[in-house]
Amino acid sequence: FFFRFAAVYVSQKISKSRWRPVSHSSLQQADIFATGSWDNEDNKISFWSIGSHGSSGVEDGFEGDPQLLCEHKHDGDVLDLQFLDQDRIVTASSTGAVTIFRHHQNSQTISVSQQWARAHRYPSDNAPCTGVVCSSPEIVTVGEDGRIIVFRADQEGVIRVIDNADSSTIHAVTYLRTTEILTVNSIGQLKLWDLRQQSNSPSQILSLSGDRVPLHCVDRHPNQQHIVATGGQDGMLCVWDVRQGSTPFSLMEAHSAEMWEVHFHPTNPDHLFTCSEDGSLLHWETSSQSDIPSFLQGGRNSSMTSRSAMAPAGGNQSLINAWLSGDSSKGRLETTHMLPSQTLSVNSLDVLGQCLVCGTDGEAIFVNRQVPV
Amino acid sequence: IFKINKVCLLKTSSGTHLGFAWGPGDILVYETLYKVRKDEDIYSPILRKLFNESHHIFVGLQTIREDLPSKNKKPQFVSISKNYRSVIRACMEELQQVAEVAMQYGNQVSILLAIELIWNLCEVLFIDAAPAGSLLLHLLDWVRLHKADVDEKAREVLQSESPAEHRDYWDVVVSYVLQGRLEEARQMLVKQATLQPAARKMYKQMDTLLSKMPFYNPGGTQTLTEFDVKWRHWHEEVDRCLQDNSFASNKHLELICKVSDLGDEDTLLEHKDLLSTWYHFLVTRLLFCHPTVKPTELHYYAQSCLTMFLDSRSVPEPLDSILLAAFEFDIHQVIKDCSIALNNWWFVAHLTDLLDHCKLLQSHNLHFGSNLREFLLLEYASGLFTHHSLWQLAVDYFDHCPEFGRVYLELQIERVPLDTERKALKVLRICEQRQMSEQVRSICKIMAMRALRNNRLGSALSWSIRAKDAAFATLISERFLQDYCARGTFSDLDLIDNLGPAMLLSDRLTFLGKYREFHKLYGEKRFREASKLLLSLMTAKIAPRSFWMTLLTDALPLLEQKEVSHHIVRYAVYGQSTPPQKIFSLLLSNIKKTSKYSYLRSCNQRIFGFFSGKNNIKDVLII
């Protein structure tokens, strides 16, 4: 299973790796991904190809290593990277800049399409932009300055700024709904923002009771929009139901150091992936018979250590029953280490279809084309 | 202009070297000085792969269990050695492609070639420790691997129209024989034979002769002695052919015969150009005169071959001394010479570490052996640490230096620039995992100060919590309180309202949280609870002195609330151990010193009015 990973050393520490989205209409598989580097004097964004499937007679999974298509200089660390559309990516830089790059497929070149140079800043210094999320043409970014900024691609200025949205660093942002976003910060709070409102306050604040562990990543369940997963400094995976209560629904010990990214599989959300500073990449899989994945059922799981959170008041009856009865036969949660051996921090991962790509501080990229989902 | 981060301690052989400057453009040292432009230098990214891949192998090596018997470990060590070498080769091949474009990197390629050559020999002699019989076979492989031009030439010859007539044809055939590749030599000879049907018998005889040369099979049942006997027989046959002048009519075949005949030195030396190195000469000689050579006998042959090969004009190069030392099984000399000659910490550090794991250094002076490994690893890792990106690899190396690794790490880790929070978090994690509490505090303090300067109070608090730095938490709370005094409202309510258990980190922070709570209660008109809280804040003595005036002012409106004042008095008189007059006298005595004294005088009446009638409080009123 392990040797299905193709690994390539790329002479740069990879901070982010993202698959280019594939259109749902075509039966195309993931083939191109973008990466960003960090901690270099000259950082780069790069586009890679893993080759199209079925093009050679070679058995799947043993085809060649990722091939570099093109790359471009990037000012500052790439702290976040998202595809805006098929040809454009947006990056968040440690200089505070937000940049749109365009990948010209025909000539395999990259050009800067648009940039907001000091989007995030302090009065007398740069402030790193730590997260970006987009829903073309809208782009939302967050930073160490505690600002939330809304942009529109192809429009010069900013659409909206929420100054002092947070007194601590906002580490990540994601969409909850088309007009609502979620941010996580370094004092362990999950905040909901309704962008339709003019007020500069969050519509909801959720946090763990107990220690204020900084949260680093957040992802929303693709089908059930109220279910959100977060990960933070203590390596715990938390799953929240944002409709009810202000504390997580379930907590699971996952990693022994910071969890940098968490992703639900976009089309198969019974599968979840997390990566961490401890050098591991975990694949979480439920085999629950019910519609609800077992890690949403809270409580204890036979194969994983977990701490029960407080039961939510009211809410879905079957969920509560499953939890209260402590019936772990209702669902099994399995966790697998995906990477073959110890590596330095796995900073980023992305999964699309059966393909998974991740980047490490060991200056390597791993691609797996046969993720069992 | 080099970006010099660290200078090597060893004396360098040439003034143009900068022994060991680990600026990004100067990882391997070279003779000529030229301007290096950071990572844009082409070969730097290629070398980085070497550092990263070898780091992976290094870490894997350290985790091999110590308690396994050595016979199980040897194959593992050999395998690891081959892994290292394949990484070197991959790097070299990539560099070669670049070197074709830019001439100046040729030197880097030749350094790597030398490194791989030495490493390979060390693997054969020390790690694999092949005994007599296998030893020669390994040495043959070694020579073949490092003489790639034979295959190139052969390809050229074979691809030509008439290979047997190609001008390099005989060079290829003889080279094959010199390398003991008799099968390939015979295949080539067939082509010549078909061209010269008249001499068919002669070629057949040569073919038979070559096909019969015995090669020792380590896995077979034949003992070394049996092999030796067979080999001597074959030699007698070769000798007979020479005496009979069987090949006299063809000088090339005659040559081959002579070579095969106990590796005739003079004949071999006539073909220095084909051998090109003294160690090829050595191995060929051994192949034809003493294939059962024992490891302990090698040095004698090596020395004599070196002397014979180099004519009186040329001097041995550093590489030659290193190889000679290897043949003499003087491991320490090899390491020492490599350190000086190649000025390449990467190589000696990793090789020495591997040899140490094979327990090859400890047979010498025990203390010195283990220190040598650590010394080299420390030097290598220190160099890595100055690289803006590769410093993370260095941490693992320091981890496996039991004596001084930790000290080195403690010193170096504080110098890593913390440009972003993300980077600071990674550095912190390294420190926390190793219980380097002083460094944890120091890093958190730097980040907290920076956050404070940029008015990011929440971030500052987050860093204080991580370091459990009560003093800094106090500082942050003071900032909040100052802000409040200046503006009359709290900033960053999202933080103060959600302090949670962090509140307990420092008294001042607790006070801040509780004071905010007081305001919330007051705002919700829950006066009873508000006043109770205020009183406890006063009596608990966690309020900063500068704040006492504010507290008293806050208390005044509460005193007017009849229902509340009664409660305050009751609480003050019956609920506290500190008598209420003492509280007020304390507060008043301090307030007297402030400029707000006059304001309080006007409030005095109210206080007096309230407390008159309570005899034991009258003397509180100092006007």
UniProtKB/TrEMBL annotation, chain A:
Put simply, this protein is called: Nucleoporin 43
Signal peptide positions are none
Q: Which UniProt keywords apply?
A: Nucleus, Repeat, WD repeat
WD repeat start and end residues: 208-250, 252-294
The major lineage groups are:
Eukaryota, Metazoa, Chordata, Craniata, Vertebrata
Q: Quote the InterPro entries the UniProt record gives.
A: WD40/YVTN_repeat-like_dom_sf (IPR015943), WD40_repeat_CS (IPR019775), WD40_repeat_dom_sf (IPR036322), WD40_rpt (IPR001680)
Instruction: Kindly report the protein's main subcellular placement as a broad class.
Output: nucleus
PROSITE patterns cross-referenced by the UniProt entry: WD_REPEATS_1, WD_REPEATS_2
Record localization: Nucleus
Pfam family example for this protein?
WD40
Keyword Nucleus recorded:
yes
Give the CC-aspect GO terms: nuclear pore outer ring
UniProtKB/TrEMBL annotation, chain B:
Task of the protein = Functions as a component of the nuclear pore complex (NPC).
Quaternary structure and interacting proteins, as annotated: Component of the nuclear pore complex (NPC).
Instruction: Give the GO cellular component terms, alphabetically.
Output: nuclear membrane; nuclear pore outer ring
What are its GO biological-process terms? mRNA export from nucleus; positive regulation of DNA-templated transcription; protein import into nucleus
Query: What UniProt keywords are attached to this protein's entry?
Result: Membrane, mRNA transport, Nuclear pore complex, Nucleus, Protein transport, Translocation, Transport
Protein localization: Nucleus, Nuclear pore complex
* Domain of life of the source: Eukaryota
List where the protein spans the membrane: none
User: Where does the UniProt entry say this protein principally localizes?
Assistant: nucleus
Give the record's family classification. Belongs to the nucleoporin Nup85 family.
> What is the protein named?
Nuclear pore complex protein Nup85
An MF annotation (GO) of this entry: structural constituent of nuclear pore
